[in-house]
Amino acid sequence: MNDKQKEELKTKINSEIENLTRQVKELEDTVAPVKPDAAIGRLSRLDTMLNQGINKSSIAQSRQRILNLEDALNRLEKDVFFGECEECGEGIPIARLLALPESRFCVHCAEHLGE
Ligand SMILES: [Zn+2]
After folding, report:
1. What is the pLDDT of residues 3-30, one digit of tens each?
2. Rounded to an integer, what distance in angstroms lies between the CA atom of residue 81 and that of residue 68?
3. Which of 16, 50, 85, 102 would be 106's cystine partner, CB 3.0–4.6 Å?
4. 113 alpha carbon – ligand 1 mean position (Å)
């Protein structure tokens, strides 16, 4: 991986983190507790609660992805274990890294490991 590719990846990771952080913030606004308000009917209240459940799991997923991306950024900056498959030690193609910067395995091992 050359310096230009590294810069590209850093930019990519930072913008992903930014997007995810914004998404989490927006989702968090939607999962405020539902008040047993007479203004909205029982059904729409259930509906809201159901959506909130979905949003809560998206929040958890996005938060985990942010952590993974921050970890990837860290590894990239320190030049440790970045772009190398942790399973077989082969280089991970730059295209895969750009698509999924937090990947720690090459395509082959990822499939093998069910990642
Ligand atoms: Zn591998």
Report:
1. 899 999 999 999 999 999 999 999 998 8
2. 14
3. 85
4. 10
What's the CA-to-centroid distance between 114 and ligand 1, angstroms?
Answer: 12
Q: Separation of 89 CA from ligand 1 center, angstroms?
A: 6
* Complete DSSP assignment for 34-103: PP--TTS-HHHHHHHHHHHHHHHHHHHHHHHHHHHHHHHHHHHHHTSS-SB-TTT-PBPPHHHHHH-TT-
CA of 15 to the centre of ligand 1 (A): 27
C-alpha of residue 90 to centroid of ligand 1, in Å:
6
For residue 55, how many other CB atoms are within 10 A of its CB? Answer: 17
